[in-house]
């Protein structure tokens, strides 16, 4: 090409690339060549200038290859064209500087090119100064973009941008590059977004990018407050981020914001600390001190920091010269020692010039102890794992206070020694000098005792640490502590275990042995997280605690009195807390052949170990009767034995021979667990029992001191499974009916039969020795310490009853009783027993006096005997004191008599003879009855006639025969007697009817007129029976039976009221007097003038009374009580008319209008004063009363009845908080009828809920369920709301006359007696008033009754003629039928004929019997009272 030919710059690029248009046609877009040239990095000044010269419009055309369609200037900036090319394009088209963020594109050029764009930046800003204010696509201003590392420009470029827009220095900057919408956001939207995000200012970026002092100063000049802004990325102030930079930068920022010197950095350090470490100059250090003279780093003030961080002496001297007061500053944040700068200078070995300057500034420093030579020296020595103990001892001796002072790190010497594993001698030395250190937590929050336990240090050291940090005081009260006790018990090391043992044991080292007296408190005391010490205890300490806490280390004795105690033994109930049995492992061990089943033989071997009978498994399984699977075995074990602590009883016996007899009877005779409560396997050894009794551990001493003060505990024990109830409890609490009694006696007879088949006499069969076990609810025998072998008559062996004075004389037969008549016999008896050392046993065998008219006629004893030592069944024959000098051989007949006594009591509710709590004869008179048993047939007949049922009476008569040989065996009675065999009852009844009819026909032929005379006499007697006496009989019976119920069932107060509002406060004595006077006036004796309580206005119609204040509130309470009473009357009528199953629904509907709002208030009532109790925490607020109150109305009704009985309407008003003895007549109008209804016994019946509990008989199952629901619901509510059973301070007392338990606030015996007497007086007055009303109503009925009796007499006379004929027919009944010599079938046929013959006779005498029935009923009522009294006494005892 010739030089003259024009240059074509496009020739460098070749043909342009085709671009598809929207119409899919190929075209070449204009401007393509210049942008393409710039993109290909082939542009230079020459070709760009040539292109522009030829095509000047190309600089204004956009690149179509990009969506943004950049102008050539923008393309040149993006594709890094040279500065010259860029400047050429700016000059060619200046307007391009205003478009598409040209300034941002210039700033974002690759900084690695190291080119100076200052000219470009200036040119762009000159053309378009507003460009400095425009944000880029990433939300940043140009100033920020020029500062950051990614695009970081030269400082001169930054300064040029800042000069164009100084406000950019204070503008918040936020990075929008990560925002998905950033590309579509307009500038205003970007500003809104950045205001909602944490932002930096330009100074932050400048510091992070290490910009020059000049740039930082310019930024601070533009925005001085930037020095106060924290960088959101670092959390630091600008000064903090600049530390480590040149000191001129640090000083610049410090001067801009001096407060920054006082603020801590993100890592917790102060600026002075960083500068000191960096060995800053004295000018910087002085500047920092000036800004923050109280700087403290780990306790060191400013001068201390300078001295310890290795800064030069010149810096130290300069600081001291500028601020001489710094010489007095002390190091004291964590340390308990006083460290002066002079001390630090000595420790840091500073020059003498520095030391002198410090001393000149603070001369008294030389008088202050240098801790580096004392305390801190001690700390340093202890940091050595093997310190010289002699040096330590000398140092401690010289400076004893150093042991209790903390060092610079806040640690005590004891803590340092523990961390560095000093010897036990060193730790003990430090502890003794400063015991408080044991309570101080270490740096890692542990207590010293924890470290000692982890290192398994000695018990003496552990004990020393525990001594002053126990959680209880000497009297067992909780005290503040640091938790050493809880930490000690949680470690299973020898030292910890030994320390716990020393704490709990009786040791003279502890004053008064006080810890061992509060073992339960120490075990149950809780740490700050509510965990008890026992729960926290590791295995070893737990075992030690249990050793002292539990009897024999495993039995938790039941608190309270023992289950039972006699002269020879004490029965304790307990929980066995020994490790739970692994029933799976037990099964696998017994499964010899590995077939997964246990047969009867395998079961027999294994069940002995766990204390169960094989039949309990085989009969309780649905599988084969001969084997069971593992799953079934484990399930039955858990069902019968429980999956937790097992309930047991521990029988402690004083007499070793008694104990041996008990054990021998169980071990030698192979007694079945079906009939006998077996001893438990794996019980403690005899030695363990002996030790536990001797030491009184496990709460035994507490029980003995509280309940058994005069009783010596035996050390021979029998441990058995516990039954829920014994037969005595079953009898009084469950009150079995005749069928229940038959079932009970059958089980007892079967158990006795089993013993007799094994040739064993029990010797002490009574209710207390018969237990019902929970495993199958069957009765079993216990207590075999009176047992003896049954030897056939004439055998070589001898075996006797009554060994070792082990007996219960009230259940023994007559042959066991002996009579001492002469003084010689008495002396012989005393001499025989004088060697017995047990006082209780001597008292038991002592003769009982039989007195007649105050004169001693005889002395009676039981034919018991002493045994030879070590031979529990061998009598000491020498000196036997009995009349025939013979003992009674052990035999079945002794047990059979005891069965008769047991049956008599179960059937009649009475004791056969008067007896004590232990079933011994109550007196010599009772033993006299036994001795002469059968000599008075009439008395026996009367006694046996108390048994209502013929078969039962016959059973008892056969067992209680005087001759031992005539008593039938238990086996024969079970098999043949009609009481146990219902098919024989018809035969027996028929024979008895035949005998009775014949005897009646022979013995009662008498003059008919004489019968009429007796009828007349009986009618007169009936009419003369005083109404008051009959009522008293009924009331006494009611009280006794209620006493039984309350003694056995009711354990919480049941007299209460429920109100919609709280009661007003009780009036003062003055106000009470004013109110009482006013009320008296209102009754009609006059009226008062206007008072604070009322205003009286006289009118022609009478007096209108306006009540105010407290008096109005009291009247409101009276009206509330009357409303409740009226509701009870109405509801009672509705209940009586409906079904008992709907009783509560009827009650709920009836009291709906009395329940207002969501809260009501329950007050307990003092049953002695009749007043509601106001106490702390009371009344109880009842939320949602509509769900509860109707359930309690029967209980509330019973309390209201009791109060109305004693004081009528006033008693009812007093119950609802009315504080006066009288109720104005106007107030009580309409209430009297309701009160009278409440006082009637039948008012309780109307609810059919509590009546059966009070009367004790005739309750249906449905009644019981309703009654139980009401009582349980109220008791459950009290237990939830009053868990401490405080009952508002009420105490339970007994009312001897009423036979009931009363709940009262009174505690003084005199006050109680006066109130009881007042109750009795009030009740009699109310009864008398009621009787007067009743007599008037019944007078008319008496006249009608007399006329009716006269008519009956006429009817009897007309029947007498036929009676004579039919009686003769009865006398001619064939003898063979009467005596029963023909078969049963013939007897039945004959008896039917005889019944027909006697029917007329019975009808003839019916009227006479009806006439005398009332008199007999009165007598029967008296007997019922005696029976109930016996029940009540036993139940209450």
Mean pLDDT equals: 75
**Which stretches of 5+ consecutive residues score pLDDT under 50?**
1-7, 12-31, 176-185, 190-194, 1019-1030, 1036-1041, 1043-1048, 1076-1105, 1135-1141, 1241-1267, 1359-1395, 1429-1437
Major sheet: 5 strands, antiparallel
Number of helices, where a helix is a run of at least 4 consecutive DSSP H or I residues: 60
- What Rg is obtained from the alpha carbons, in whole angstroms? 54 Å
Shape: elongated
> How much strand?
5-15%
Helix content: 40-55%
The CA-CA distance between the termini, in Å, is 141 Å
Structure classification: alpha+beta
Number of strands: 27
Condensed summary:
The chain is of the alpha+beta class. The protein contains 60 helices and 27 strands. The longest helix has 63 residues, at 1309-1371.
Word description of this protein:
With 1437 residues, the protein is an alpha+beta fold. Helices cover 49% and strands 8% of the residues. It is built from 60 helices and 27 strands. A hairpin with a 2-residue loop joins strand 3 (296-297) and strand 4. The chain is elongated and about 160 Å long. The relative contact order is 0.03.
Reconstruct the topology from this structure:
Blueprint: E1 19-20, E2 26-27, H1 32-39, H2 45-54, H3 72-78, H4 83-92, H5 102-107, H6 118-127, H7 142-147, H8 155-164, H9 187-195, H10 202-208, H11 213-222, H12 238-242, H13 247-256, H14 271-277, H15 282-291, E3 296-297, E4 300-301, H16 302-308, H17 313-322, H18 341-347, H19 352-361, H20 375-382, H21 389-398, H22 413-419, H23 424-433, H24 448-454, H25 459-467, H26 484-489, H27 494-504, H28 519-524, H29 533-536, H30 539-549, E5 555-557, E6 564-565, E7 569-576, H31 583-590, E8 597-599, H32 600-610, H33 614-618, E9 627-629, H34 630-641, E10 646-653, H35 656-668, H36 686-695, H37 700-707, E11 716-721, E12 725-726, H38 727-734, H39 738-757, E13 760-761, E14 770-772, E15 779-781, E16 788-789, E17 817-820, H40 823-833, H41 839-845, E18 848-852, E19 855-862, H42 892-908, H43 924-931, H44 937-944, H45 950-959, H46 970-976, H47 985-1003, H48 1008-1024, H49 1027-1048, E20 1056-1059, H50 1069-1085, E21 1094-1099, E22 1102-1107, H51 1109-1137, H52 1143-1150, E23 1159-1166, E24 1171-1172, E25 1180-1183, H53 1189-1215, H54 1232-1239, H55 1242-1245, ...
Antiparallel strand pairs: 1-2, 3-4, 5-7, 6-7, 7-10, 8-9, 10-11, 12-14, 13-16, 14-15, 17-19, 18-19, 20-23, 21-22, 23-24, 23-25, 26-27
Helix pairs in contact: 2-4, 3-4, 4-6, 6-8, 8-11, 10-11, 11-13, 13-15, 14-15, 15-17, 17-19, 18-19, 22-23, 24-25, 25-27, 27-30, 31-34, 39-42, 42-45, 47-58, 47-60, 48-58, 48-60, 49-60, 51-52, 51-53, 51-54, 52-53, 53-54, 53-57, 53-58, 58-60
